[in-house]
Every structure is written in C-alpha cells, then in structure tokens.
Amino acid sequence: MTAIQENLAHVVDDHADHHHEHPSWLAHHFDDAEQQYDSGKLGMWLFLVTEVLFFSGMFCAYALYRNRNPEVFEFCSSFLNEKLGAINTGVLLFSSLTMAWAVRAAQLRQHQLLVGMLGATLGCAAIFLGVKAVEYSHKWELGLLPGKLYVAQLDGAHGPHKGYLEFICTVPAIVTALCALYAIYAFATKSLFHQRVAGPMLVAGLCFFGGVGLGQYLEAQEEASKGHGGHAGSHEHHAMVDGHVDHGSHEHAAAPDSVHAAETKTAAEIAASAASAMGGSPNVYVSPTELKTPNADVNQRSMAGLFFSIYYCMTGVHAIHIIGGMIVITWLIVKAAREEFHEQYFGPVDNVGLYWHLVDFIWIYLFPLLYLIT
Amino acid sequence: MSVVDRPITAPVHSEVESYPEHHFLNHSSGFLSWALTLDHKRIGLMYLVGVMSSFALGGMFALMIRIHLWNFKDGWLSNQTYNQVFTLHGAIMVFLFIIPSVPAALGNFLLPVMLGTKDVAFPRLNLSSFYLWVTGLILFLTALSVTGLDTGWTFYTPYSIETQQGGAVLAATFGVFVLGFSSIFTGLNFIVTINTMRPPGMTWFRMPLFLWAIYATSIIQVLATPVLGITVLLLSAERLLGIGIFDPKLNGDPVTFQHFFWFYSHPAVYIMILPAMGIISELMSVHCHKGIFGYRMIAYSSIAIALFGFLVWGHHMFTSGMADVTTIVFSALTFTVSIPSAIKVFNWLGTMYQGTVSLNTPMLYALAFIFLFTIGGLTGLPLGALSTDMHFHDTYFVVAHFHYVMMGGTLVAFLGGVFHWWPKMTGRMFNDKLGIVSAIIVFVGFNLTFLPQFVLGSRGMPRRYATYLPEFQPLHQLSTIGSITLGSGLLLALIVLLMSLVNGKKAPRNPWGGATLEWMCSSPPPHDNFSSAPTVGDPYDFSNIEYDGRVGGYVKRP
C-alpha cells in the first residue's frame, strides 16, 4: 500500500520554500499540474505491473500443480460454493463501476456524489470480505486447511470445529463499533466534514455484516438443498467430477456408472455411489453418514492440501489487497469530504481507481480458476 | 596515453568559483533534518553510509571464510558456523550491498542532478524505500544474532524448510521481502522521474549513459523483484504453516522454487552490473576528456541486457533437473547476453583510443573494472555451455566467475564512482596519490584472491565446503593472502575518503572536466540542485571545457 499512499500523498506536499506560484496541491518539484498527474499515473501503472508479477508467481504455481494433478483440482474445487463466488464477483464488478463514477465526480467537482461513490465502493469491498469470511470459516470448520494442516475427514469422524466465523468477525465488529461512535460524534457536532467521513465508514462496517449474513444464508440454503435431495443438476455436475477423477491416477470400473447414475438417482444415492465409486465424495454438504471411505488418493494432505494452499494463498493475498484498497479509499473519502478534488487535481482518485480495477480484475481470474473450471 | 596537458596561462574566461555558502549539507541541521529528509541527495548519502557499512560487515565474513580455509582441515570455525558465515557473507553482500549500492546510493544522489530536476518524482516514496532497506537490515541482523542462517543466500528448498534454524530463515526471508519492496520503489521512482521530469532540452539521447543504465536497471527492479517477493512469501508460509508448495513431502516441487528464485535472481545480476557499466561509461569519457564512442549502442545495449536478462535464469539450474530441450534453449539464450556486454567493452576501449587519459583514482578503478569484468564475462561462457557446466557447476570456478563480475565488476565500478563523485557529494577533494595506491592494491589483491579459485574449481574443488583435499592447500593459501591484500586495499580506500573530510581541500565545481549537468552546479550542490534551470547540451561534448588554474578545476568556455 505504501506505493499508492506515497504516490498520492506527496502531491499535497506543501513545502515552505516556494519559488513559483505553486498552488497547495502541486508539489514543489513539479512544474505544472500535468506533469504531476502524468507522474502519478505512470507510477501507478508501474506499481500495477509489479502487482501483476507478484500474483503471477501464484498463477504459475496454480498452472503447474493443476497440470500435474488435475484430479485433485477437480475434486477440491467442488468444495467451493460457486454462488458465493459469483455474488462476490458481482459485488466487485459493481464496485468498479462506482469507483469509475467517483473519478468522474471528482473531475466535475461533485463533492457529495464523490463521497457517495467512494462510500459505495467501500461498502462493496466490505460485503466482499463478509462473504469471504463465511467461506473461510466454513472451510476451516471442515478441516479444509492448507498443506500439512489439512485434516478434512469426509467420513464424519472429524467433528467440525465451530467459532471461526465469530473469531474472524471480532476485528470488523470493533471497527464498526468505533465507526458508530465516530458517526454519533459527527452528528452530535453537526460537522459536515465528519458526517461525510463517518457515514460511509459506518455503512461499510455494516455492509461487512450484511455480507456475512448473506453468505451464511446462501451457505445454509446450499446445505439444505443438498441435504434434501434437491438440485439434481448440481449433483450431476459433482458426479461428473467424480467420473473425471478416475483417469487421473486410478482406473476404476465403477466410474462410468456413477456418471450415468447421476441423471436418475437422488442426491443421497449419488453421493453414496460416488463415494463407493471413488472412495470419497467431493460433496461436503452431504451429511457425513452418507459418505463412505474417503478417497485415499485425493483426500489427503499431499494432494488436497496443496490445492487449499494455493486457494488460501491466492484468495488471501487478494483479500489483503482488498483491505489495503479500503484503507486508501477511506483516505480518499477524507480528502473528498474536504472538497480537495477538482478538474486540475483528481489524480489520487484516478490512481486509486486504477488500483481498485486491478484488484477486481485479479478476482475475475481467480473466480473461474478456483471455483468454476472442472 | 599521456596525462592531460593543463594550460599554464590563465584562461580568458574566469567564472566566480567558490565553495558555496549554502548547500544541501548545511541547508538544515539536526538529526530529524536527516531522518525525515525528502531531499534525494541526503537520502543518497544515507544509503551510501548504509551500503558501505553492510559491505564492511559482509567483507568481515569473507575474511573469516578465507582464514578458515588456510588449512585443509580443522579450520578455526566449526562446520556449522562455517555454513552460517558463508550464508551471511552471501546474503549481506547480495541483498544489502550490491543491489542497492549503485542505484540507491549513487543513483539517488545523481539521477535528479544529472537530469536537471529538483528531486525525484516521489520524494516520500524515496524516503520510505530507505526505511524499508533499514528494516531489511534489522531483520538480517536478527537472523544473524538469534540463531544463524545456514541455508546459503539462495534459500533452496527443501533444506530451508527442514533446517533447524527456522527462526533465522523466517527473519531473513521476511528481510528479503522488505528489501525487495525497497528496491521496487526505488526503481519505480527512477523510471517515473526519467519519463516525466526531464527538463526542456533533455531528450532521451542527451541523457548521460549513467541514466540509461539506471533506467534499464529500474526496469529489471520493477519487473523481477515482485516475483522474488511472492517466492519468499510462499517460503515463509511454507515454514510457518507447511503449505507444501515447495515441499516434496507434501507433493510440492523444490525445483519450482529454484525457477521462481532465479527468475528474480538472474535479472538481479543485471541489477548489480548494469549501473556499474553506467558508471564506467561516465568515467571513461570524462577522464579521457573525449566524447563517448558509440553513445547510442551503449544506451541500447543497456536496454538489451535488461531484456535478455529475463530469459536466461535456467542456466543456474542445468544440473537441477530440467528437460533437455529447456537446458539447450537456456544455454543458447545465455550466450546472447554476451553480445550487448561485449558492445559496451569495445565502446569503452574505443573511447580511450586517442583520448588524453588522466590516470587518476577513478580512472584506475575504471580500468581495473574493464580488465576484471572482461575476465568475469568470458569465464561465464564455459558456465553457460551445457557440457562444461556439468563439470564446473557448484565448484570454485563458479565462485571465481561471479566474484569477478560482482566484485571485480560492480564493487570496483562502485568505488570508482564514489571517488569520481566524492568531490560533488561532499565538496572535498581526496588525496589522489593514496587513492591510486588503493586502486593498485585492490586490483592486485583481487586477482591474487580469485585467479587461484578458477584453477581450484577446474580441478574439482566444490564450493561451500568447510574442508578440502590437502593438494588444494597451496592455492587456497594464495587466495587467502590475496583476500587480506584486497581487504587492506579497500581499507586504504576508505581511509582516503574519510581523511578528505578532515583535511581535504575544497572541491571546485568541476574537478575532472565533466560535461554532464551535475558538474554545472556547485560542489556540494544546493538544496534545490539548480538555482536556475540548467541549459542542457551534449553530455559528452568536451570541446569547450578548459582547465582553470585559479579555481583548480575545469570551467566551460562561453
């Protein structure tokens, strides 16, 4: 984050020793607004290049290990809830729209709209993290952890741990409470500046819990639908996954049956046949009693664990970038609330926007690679 | 070669030349005026002190290694300590000294002045780079003092996962991560500064070649370093959580680590050598008082090296297990890098031809560079060739090769650059005679240290061993004697520089007769570099630059 803050922070740098008529928003070592804007922009693009290369290491790791063990990736990606991923994709895409709109508002001196748009972006980021918190905590409860920590037992022998979600939510809860206090202060003092800052921050804090609620609702719905044998389509898909798993390292005569069976059987039967065919099931939403022996080849630390290592590394580093983006957007809201931006000076909004689009863009790659491709 | 003839008669034109009353060193005072400075010159000087201290530390470890190897067995260090000492020597020299040496220290000081701007594009980012470097230094020293890192500077898996010194690996890899960002931000800053802040008249092809070299270096820093960042981050996660990506026990792949690591670390070799080449281009033309030969070819070859440098990392891994075709392709690509390097060497020689060479301290270091770098470069060819590399891999031949390039190349050029710009940075002239002595001792000591290692390596002495066969002892002892000679030469160089601060006479504006912009402002430069916008001309046009006895330096004829 330093790069962005530095890129942008210095432009309001106000040195005492002015030689020319320098407006306060123009740093002393720049000749004019255009030079300052171009420098900031080029700096941000270069920073984005480094970000792409930073992620490229993990994309390479993904490609390598997927190529080496395709069956592991197919097996494991079915643990991920596509609905939550899809919602997060939509949320991030929408936040890119509000961010772009914010840039326009900054150019047009529409200060109120600018604060609103930045607030909307911040809120979307919070919803994203809320949904992600549900996804993470749910996986931790099932023991779907990276590398040597992987302890998922699909036969139900492993009692699920609870309380991870509450643990993750502690920090956001404290932040939201502080935002609420700040908002009370802002409205009590009737300061327009503080209201403009506190409002979006409080909304963002609440959005996080909105995201958590949404995530839990969808996760429960998914669980319920699987448990009651609905949505044959989705199970068909999972069974297909099982069918594919076979040609990885193992020849298994029962596999084609399980594919065929998927079209006619109920979910429980599918799960059972899939389990017997493969010795395990990718479908964690099936109640544990319906599962038989876990797949000795795929469901083990050295196989599934590696997928989850890559999953947590990629989504985790991405989430850190979201959090970094939220901090910078908050900083922009403060500046916007002070009405600092105008048609000559909107570089910070523009550059943070670029960064935000990149973070969005990376997610657009992560979503299909991790959730969808089978 | 003759010493430049200095006119005895006073020139017609005389410029009012005096030690400036106000300059960047006394612009403000107090600890905070340095610690929080946004002035690129002060940041450059702080880097200079920092990298030189790191070099001293790394050099101590080097001497410890050489003294240990005096006898073929029962050296004064335990085997475990020996592992830690060579690891720290490598890690400190690479990450704390060579990579930031020229770009961060000299580059920071010189880039805006040579370009004719007031500062770099992002002064705060610049300062934060310095503090990231300090943080990295602290983490490295932690790794040193807590347990002792013993993985080699390359942190190869699975050893770095298995070793007992887990805390040290974590501290050091996090240190590398932080240092990487320091390097990225410096590079980013320089690219933006050169692209957007050139004053009117400073076209791309009027830029001094040092800036071309820094620009090419910055491209590598920005493109390669993030990959190192994610690699060491994954390695840290490996140590902390056991994620298994590089751990064969968890179905991970240690060769993948090597690919990731060298994808950065080979281009990093060019981060080290390219700016050194830039220094030599400046030194050659200024001290030969003759325009640089083949300006455009030198400029383009810098960019070419930067780009080719990204395609050759596999030559570090010929014996690690790669497909045959891959090794052949990497070997072929490796040879292409020698072309732009050779272009530079020939152009420097062409610059010297028929020049009036001033054989002073910076020039002697520059000459030493050309000699040593050429040996280093040429011995790289047998290492890039597949068949001979099978024999030389992981022997002292490799050690000697990269010391000729890194130390004989980068360090010697760095010293030359420090001597060359010392009067500009501090406003003091050093004792040139003692400087020349230091250059000669360094040159002799260096060859005495590393030439025997080529022989040792080709006879099969493996690198990183704490003991060796008795028949290697004479050559090892020769090398140890050389290293002590080298160390004393470097110490003398440091003394010469420090003495100048005490009793050096005040430096003129242009002591060497350079034509680039930094010689147009006072020594040391004022806070904002130029009181009025400089007029930009050909950086290598020496036709109207004359020696003026009254100011003790060169002046520009109107």
Fold topology:
The complex is a heterodimer of chains A (374) and B (558).
Chain A: H1 2-9, H2 33-68, H3 70-77, H4 82-107, H5 111-141, H6 164-189, H7 192-227, H8 232-249, H9 255-261, H10 267-278, H11 301-337, H12 347-372
Chain B: H1 31-35, H2 40-68, H3 79-115, H4 123-146, H5 159-162, H6 166-196, H7 209-241, H8 254-288, H9 295-308, H10 324-352, H11 361-384, H12 386-392, H13 396-426, H14 432-458, H15 473-503, E1 545-548, E2 553-556
Helix pairs in contact in B: 2-3, 2-4, 2-15, 3-4, 3-6, 3-7, 3-8, 3-13, 4-6, 6-7, 7-8, 7-9, 8-9, 8-10, 8-11, 8-13, 9-10, 10-11, 11-13, 11-14, 13-14, 14-15
Number of domains of chain A: 1
If interface size is counted as residues with C-beta under 8 Å from the partner's C-beta, which chains form the largest one?
Answer: A-B, 49 and 50 residues
For the termini of chain B, the CA-CA separation is: 29 Å
Low-confidence sequence ranges of chain B: 1-16
Instruction: Please give the order of strands in the largest beta sheet of chain B.
Output: 1-2
Strand content of chain B: under 5%
Gyration radius of chain A, in Å: 24 Å
Number of strands of chain A: 0
The arrangement of helices and strands of chain B along the chain is HHHHHHHHHHHHHHHEE
Structural class call of chain B reads mainly alpha
Q: What kind of sheet is the major sheet of chain B?
A: 2 strands, antiparallel
Quickly count the helices of chain A. 12
| H/I helix tally of chain B | 15
Q: Which percent range describes the beta-strand content of chain A?
A: under 5%
* CATH architectural type of chain A: Up-down Bundle
CATH superfamily of chain B: Cytochrome c oxidase-like, subunit I domain
User: Order of helices and strands of chain A, N to C?
Assistant: HHHHHHHHHHHH
Report the CATH architecture of chain B: Up-down Bundle
Mean pLDDT of chain B: 91
Q: What is the β-strand count of chain B?
A: 2
Major sheet details of chain A = none
